[in-house]
Write a structure and sequence with these properties.
Layout lengths: L1 H10 L1 H39 L5 E5 L17 E2 H8 L4 E7 L1 E3 L2 E2 L14 E5 L7 E6 L7 E5 H7 L6 E5 L5 E11 L10 E5 L1 H8 L5 E2 L1 E6 L5 H12 L3 E5 H48 L1 H9 L4 H42 L12 H27 L18 H22 L7 H31 L7 H12 L1 H38 L5 E5 L13 H6 L4 E14 L2 E7 L2 H7 L4 E4 L8 E5 H7 L6 E5 L5 E10 L9 E2 L14 E6 L5 H11 L6 E5 H44 L1 H9 L4 H38 L10 H27 L3 H5 L3
Parallel strand pairs: 6-11, 8-10, 17-22, 19-21
Antiparallel strand pairs: 1-13, 1-14, 2-12, 3-13, 4-6, 5-9, 7-10, 8-11, 9-10, 15-23, 15-24, 16-17, 16-20, 16-23, 18-21, 19-22, 20-21
């Protein structure tokens, strides 16, 4: 039985390859996700191990400053000179090196703009003579206050050389420096991971990078021979005292590596999700393929039964086919995925314009096991129902010439209706706020059930819908025949279309959400902001980027300016909890941000006064007149009295302070500015004068509303593009399913096609008939996907809500999707049409 099954499997190599291709693509995604993630994770682990190779203990100060709302440190506490000296004198310390290093040294390039970063930090450090990690390649170390050294990666990016003069922005405005030297890193690296680094003399670094002369960000300690890291850590901790954090070199490396773990996890999770979607799409293809194979092999399987094969043997033979197909296809997918994982890493390097600290490819044993297991399991599950059908073929069927007809659709339709209703009920409970919590569980569960219900209901509507669509082709006999062929087996048509529906549903849902988000952003800046011009800071800048707040006085003095403000934002601990606080002129903010007073007054604030939005006041239990304790990043610790409560606004929310109280924010700069022009005809002239005001600041630009809306939508566009590319690959699997279905249908209808040719249909007409079938299947699947996707997008927008989401239909996107369905249908028909047209008429008539 096994040998007979194996011969039958290998006898049809084309349909075997097409069936396995779905599994190959899905497992390729999965293994590529794991390989790319593991390769980068291992690269960063090796990097941090190398960086900390000569580090046995590191000492940093505990920070009492408020963290950001994401829980990140916004200000580093410092180690004083006395503590550094005490650490150096600890028994067992061979070398103690106080260091200054922080993100925030921005070099101005030859084009007058700050050298941008697509993620990696822009470090500033204090040069330490004898640091084994750094390798001076050209020139000398900085020894004068106006000298710096830059890493080789920055030198290559900018084209700067030893002796050039460059401007650098730090905590202080841009200052000129002379490049004294260019350095690299141990191992011949130009950078550690795509970062840029500027090295100052230690006193200059202390002043410009941390604003704390005589202090350090950390102290690195090397142990004497015979002293372990753990033992030295205990000694140093005892000497440093409770105000300091003391870690071994291994702990430091692990902490640094963990900071990249979230990025790697997101990458692996996202790609694995698309791999599962691809495999799920492929499951439809495999199910369809095995269903058709069983139907076509009815006589063959019945003959096995008549020769004595049991139902179990027939069942096992079909399942064994699926196991072999899944295993071989998964192996191929794994091999290709390893290569794709390497290319993906290269692509990320190119996208980030950075030299990531990774090399080669890391393939862990679990990747092999999971990929083979999941790929094979998907194939077996997809083939399970056809296998059960195969075992039920009666021996008497060997005497029949016709394949077993499909069962009635009534039972499937009822079950599909119940499943669909359950999904709609879950969505309705969430959209009507009957269920307050579990947003994504309710949305995801409801959408999944509704989607499954649509897939189960599809066979019952396949014939009428394709019949209606087929009227567009009824002007010719081949078109009418193609329409009838599509409706002949509604289950097959629906399953093939459902595979296409998956990718289209997700792409359409994402399109509706993106269009709604863009519309919401546009609505906020158009209707809720009464300012035509915005002064914005480079989003790749650090927390220190921005412009001098006093510039607002010059902005107000420009002819035609009705109101202007400059805003300093920072993470501040207010009433014991971290919040983003804005320091600005409340009088101007009331006009520009359209603030509506609810209690008290919105006026120019005195020192130690603040206003707050009503939602924050309600959440925290604050009332008018309350004195709220405030702690800022650089040591400000005082109380602010609430003098006004305003209606929550889309542009401004949270506490607003007097600009004088921002002196201890982590940055002395304003990050945003808004200008209201009295007459729209003067906007161009005012913009020109504003640009002249900030022309010497390479981190600041002036935009109008349309520019800021476009900038705000850029990230959304990037995400949507990546999403559509990945979903496009899923749709490719579905198109392969259409090809496979049509090819198998051609095999099934060989005699029929021969008879049609015999009574006068030529090859061109036959090709047109197959093309009509392909187009109808594709358009039917896309229509299902568009309807389901629009419903999904509307549900997400309504459930998530918020003023930054305004339900909008991307009509051009939807029309383009339908057009692509027609194109996909034509493309999918090419190979089956060629196959059908090449059939020999006499042999086809005699085919059994």
């Amino acid at each position: 039985m096994f040998r007979a099954m194996l011969r039958g499997l290998l006898a049809h190599k084309l349909r075997l390859a097409l069936s396995g291709l779905a599994v190959v693509l899905g497992t390729m995604f999965m293994s590529a996700a794991f390989v790319a993630g593991d390769t980068m994770a291992k690269g960063f682990e090796n990097l941090f191990s190398t960086v900390n190779e000569n580090l046995d203990v590191q000492v940093t100060a505990k920070s009492d400053a408020p963290k950001s709302e994401q829980g990140n440190e916004v200000v580093t506490a410092f180690v004083d000179q006395a503590t550094a000296d005490k650490i150096a004198s600890v028994s067992g310390v061979a070398r103690s090196t106080p260091q200054v290093g922080t993100d925030g040294a921005r070099v101005v390039g030859k084009n007058g703009k700050v050298v941008s970063s697509n993620g990696p930090p822009r470090f500033g450090i204090g040069w330490v003579q004898g640091d084994t990690l750094l390798e001076l390649r050209e020139g000398t170390a900085p020894t004068r206050p106006d000298e710096i050294a830059i890493n080789a990666g920055l030198a290559k990016t900018t084209g700067y050389r030893v002796g050039d003069r460059v401007d650098v922005i730090t905590l202080k405005p841009r200052q000129p420096f002379k490049i004294a030297g260019i350095f690299g890193y141990e191992g011949g690296r130009d950078s550690l991971g795509g970062e840029t680094t500027v090295a100052f003399t230690m006193p200059v670094a202390q002043e410009l990078l941390i604003g704390a002369p005589g202090r350090y960000t950390n102290v690195d300690v090397q142990a004497a021979d015979g002293v372990s890291q753990a033992e030295l850590r205990s000694r140093v901790a005892a000497a440093a005292g409770p105000r300091y954090v003391v870690k071994t070199g291994e702990e430091t490396a692990n902490d640094q590596a963990s900071e990249t773990a979230s990025f790697v996890s997101i990458l692996k999770g996202g790609l694995t999700g698309f791999a599962v979607i691809g495999l799920f799409t492929g499951a439809f293809l495999i199910f369809n393929t095995f269903s058709m194979l069983v139907a076509q092999r009815t006589r063959e399987l019945a003959l096995y039964r008549s020769f004595g094969a049991s139902r179990g043997q027939v069942n096992r033979s079909v399942l064994l086919e699926s196991v072999l197909l899944g295993l071989v296809a998964s192996l191929v997918g794994l091999g290709i995925g390893v290569g794709v994982g390497y290319l993906l890493r290269q692509l990320l390097e190119s996208f980030a314009n950075a030299n990531l600290p990774v090399s080669g490819v890391v393939v862990r044993p679990y990747v092999v096991a999971v990929t083979l297991l999941v790929g094979t399991a998907f194939t077996v599950v997809a083939a399970l129902i056809p296998a059960l059908r195969a075992s039920r073929v009666a021996p008497i069927a060997a005497m029949r010439e016709a394949a077993t007809p499909d069962k009635p659709l009534g039972r499937l339709t009822v079950i599909g209706g119940v499943v669909f209703a359950a999904g709609v009920l879950l969505l309705a409970l969430k959209l009507t706020d009957v269920v307050k919590d579990a947003l994504w569980w309710m949305l995801g569960g409801g959408a999944a059930l509704a989607f499954l219900g649509v897939a189960m209901l599809a066979p019952s509507v396949a014939r009428p819908v394709t019949g209606l669509l087929g009227r567009a082709f009824s002007w010719a006999v081949p078109g009418r025949l193609g329409t009838r062929n599509t409706g002949r087996n509604p289950r097959r048509t629906a399953v093939t279309a459902a595979a296409l529906m998956i990718g289209v549903t997700l792409a359409t849902g994402a399109g509706v959400f993106a269009a709604s988000a863009k519309s919401g952003i546009s609505n906020v800046f158009t209707n809720d902001l009464d300012a035509q011009l915005i002064i914005a800071t480079d989003f790749t800048g650090t927390g220190q980027a921005g412009f001098d707040p006093s510039l607002v006085d010059k902005m107000k003095a420009i002819p035609g300016v009705q109101a202007a403000l400059a805003g300093q934002a920072d993470s501040v601990r207010v009433g014991g909890r971290t919040a983003t606080v804005l320091a600005t002129d409340v009088g101007a903010a009331r006009e520009i941000f359209k603030l509506i007073p609810k209690e008290g007054e919105l006026r120019a604030l005195n020192s130690d006064e603040m206003v707050v939005d009503e939602d924050t006041a309600k959440d925290r239990g604050w009332k008018l007149g309350d004195a709220i304790p405030v702690q800022t990043a650089r040591g400000g610790d005082y109380r602010e009295r609430i003098v006004g409560i305003y209606q929550t606004n889309n542009i401004a929310s949270g506490p607003i302070l007097n600009p004088a109280d921002a002196s201890t924010f982590r940055s002395p700069y304003a990050q945003q500015g808004y200008v209201k022009v009295a007459d729209d005809d003067q906007v161009g002239a005012v913009k020109g004068q504003l640009e002249a005001l900030v022309k010497d600041n390479p981190e600041v630009s002036v935009s109008d509303r349309s520019g800021i809306i476009e900038q705000s939508s850029q990230f959304l566009n990037i995400v949507l593009t990546i999403l559509n590319v990945l979903l496009g690959l899923t749709i490719l699997v579905a198109v392969l399913g259409v090809i496979n279905t049509l090819l198998l249908s051609i095999f099934e209808r060989t005699r029929e096609i021969g008879l049609i040719r015999a009574i006068g249909m030529n090859r061109r007409q036959l090709g047109w008939m197959v093309t009509v079938e392909s187009i109808l299947i594709s358009v039917f699947g896309v229509l299902l996907g568009v309807v389901a996707g629009v419903a999904l997008g509307v549900a997400i927008v309504q459930a998530v809500g918020g003023d930054f989401l305004r339900l909008t239909m991307p009509w051009a996107y939807l029309v383009a999707t339908l057009v692509l369905a027609l194109v996909a249908g034509v493309i999918a028909a090419i190979l089956p049409a060629i196959r059908a047209s090449r059939l020999d008429v006499l042999q086809a008539i005699a085919y059994e």
